[in-house]
Amino acid sequence: MTTAIDTADDRNYIKKIEPGVHQVHTEIDINTPAEHVYAVLTDFDQLREWSSTWVGNEGPFALGQICTALFMMMGRERRFEHEIKELIPGRRFAWSGKTGAGMADYHSFEMRPVTDSTCVLIQEDLARGGAAPALGKMVVKMDLKLYMAFNKEIKARAEATWDGAA
Description:
The protein is α+β, with helices and mostly antiparallel strands. Helices cover 25% and strands 46% of the residues. It has a single domain (2-161), classed as Alpha-D-Glucose-1,6-Bisphosphate, Chain A, domain 4, CATH 3.30.530.20. α1 crosses α3 (132-161).
């Protein structure tokens, strides 16, 4: 079952996977190659220049390693430790960690090529455990809006910085 909110459409939605487990799914078309979007996304020193939410990353960004993601939330910088669970350079990465109220996430970013010069950015996140049965739906509704905004920001940055060179 897909639970829609006002700004959701068939490409951006919340899905209840099972009791206490909710998934956010967002996607956006970007007019640059997947590898360029991945490079923009993983240039952690530049995140603050274009992202209003995810503003940095510290520590090793390698499969099985723990990194600390820095997010702006309600005017404050918050730090969340995540273990890198998947890493396909130029295409996809996923991490998992505690997000608050005992909940854990499994957040993935996939740059899926459409043509040699375009791709779709797919961002998915699962909320489960801890207070997820009580708060999960509320949290993912907020996440959906944030992820859609982030997707627009990375699209703008990737397209503005792509010079068309192979």
